[in-house]
Amino acid sequence: MKNIALAVWALILSVQLQAQAIEYQLSFENAVHHEAAIEASFTHLDAGTFSVRMGRSSPGRYAIHEFAKNVYNFQATDGTGKELKVHRPNPYQWDITGHNGEVNINYTLYADRGDGTYSQVDETHAHLNIPATFIYSPALPDREILVDIVLREDLNWKVATQLEKLSETKFKAPNFQYFMDSPIEVSDFSLRQFEVVQNGKSQTIEFVLHHQGTEAELDTYFEKVKKVVLAQKDIFGELPNFDFGRYTFLACYLPNASGDGMEHRNSTILTSSLGLAQGGMRRNIGTVSHEFFHIWNVERIRPQSLEPFNYAEANMSGELWFAEGFTSYYTNLTLCRAGIITPQEYIEGLSGTFNYVWNSPGRQFFNPIEMSYQAPFVDAATSVDPVNRDNTFISYYSYGSMLGLALDLSLREHNLNLDDYMKLVWETYGKEEIPYTVDDLHKTLVQYAGKEFGDHFFDFYIHRSEMPNFGALFQPVGVVVKQATDQPYFGARVSIDQLGEGIVQRNTQIGSPAYEAGLERGDVISTINNTPLAADRNFGDIISQYKVGDTLQVAFTRYGIPKTTQVILTGNPAYTIQLIEKEGDKPSKKVLKNRMAWLKRE
Description:
Layout: H1 2-19, E1 22-27, E2 35-42, E3 50-53, E4 71-77, E5 85-90, E6 93-97, E7 103-110, E8 120-121, E9 125-128, E10 145-149, E11 158-161, E12 164-165, E13 170-173, H2 176-180, E14 184-187, E15 190-198, E16 201-211, H3 215-236, E17 246-253, E18 260-263, E19 267-272, H4 280-283, H5 285-293, H6 320-323, H7 325-337, H8 343-358, H9 368-373, H10 375-378, H11 389-392, H12 396-412, H13 418-430, H14 438-449, H15 451-462, H16 470-474, E20 479-483, E21 488-489, E22 494-496, E23 502-504, H17 513-516, E24 524-528, E25 531-532, H18 539-544, E26 551-558, E27 561-568, E28 570-571, E29 575-579, H19 589-599
Helix pairs in contact: 3-5, 5-7, 7-12, 8-12, 13-14, 14-15
């Protein structure tokens, strides 16, 4: 009798909880004009003012986005259908009064950006990022959430999401935080799956692709996806335990999509305007690699500064050099290890990021932690006033990827490696989902590589802005770093228009010849050494006819006022990174062994 009573009580409790669930319904009759009709139902409410709002940030993004700007036709009624009074205390909130314990809301959402942050509704798909789509109640963070999607049968739509599936159109989230982190793709997509077995347990990796290509193209691409998944699993030794035993790639490779990737707990959004036959087969796979690595690093190896994620404010974290930067290091390294790109392509591909980080004056202003703090200003953030980021900012993606490279090569000099350090961080923090701090990463490196090594890396390269000696670090793996200092360097990005006017496109970089000469963004160069610029020439070609050390007489206008200055050309500070074989040198067996241990490739 006791067991029967407990079962009955559990059933009653379950029914009560479901009755209190927040319910949403979406329909898309006016998709051709980018509109979604959304209904939301909130029951068992306390008396008084009931507030709902739209989010101002989105998981994986750190800037403010003000999603409320796309909401209109807002109406609220109670359980009897009576229209309720609505007050707007601020741009992103609705205060509702006079209800009887139930509030039903109807509104229209305009959505026309298909990426990892926003939503897009048209007759190709309903691409839904949750904070950009749904109102929510800050007072009800723990309630279960039910979503009902009314499909357009004329468009052959179906639904893909990491949410728990109740039926083909109905889905459930256990609470607000989980819901906001669970994007939804509604379209006529294709699906591929494969199983990964570990410890006797099988988990499904599924790739949802909405595109205009062929099934054969998807088959070819999916083989690359599988290689990425397995190569990254080898780094950590295991996959996380996904909710419902499933991880979902939500990919939209369409002309109306914007290039992006965004990680979530058991899924990721991948968007690109490039179809698989238009270059996407090669160019989009890097985003697959980056976002899947996040299932460990960010989603479960998670900074304490992002817990819980705040949807009402910008989110600031000092750990993004690790969360995003180390993930960026592994992005192309994974492609190399998986055989998708060659070792030569991987090594030479390091040059762009290396030059950006190494030659940036930004390191004199901020260390990697402080660069991470800049995320709310740069991560898809917008501003109308000019900023000086060319001189003050280095992307934490790029900065962190070079630090990851340096740490990996430094550890390998001690018969250690970054893979095993990441695995230790996973075992210590990620597997049990214990949020970490910068100090925790420091302590874990000390635990793995010793106090002297760990203290040196964090003291010099994380808390300060020193740069490692990459030339020395590359030698054991047969890679050389070279500078073409005999090539003249002007130090400004100049575009010559049809009138033969050379317009300085960006802020000149501190210390460059153009900066020292007082040239700045917007200046219009007319002559060099009294010779007019030709409309049919590249500015770099003009500079290349001179030599390092030459003094150029530059005539230009600023705000319409003629001016002159002298630019003294220096050697080009850019580096190239390449295998020593390209120089005709033959690597030793030891070098090849070291390289093999690093790249997992011959």
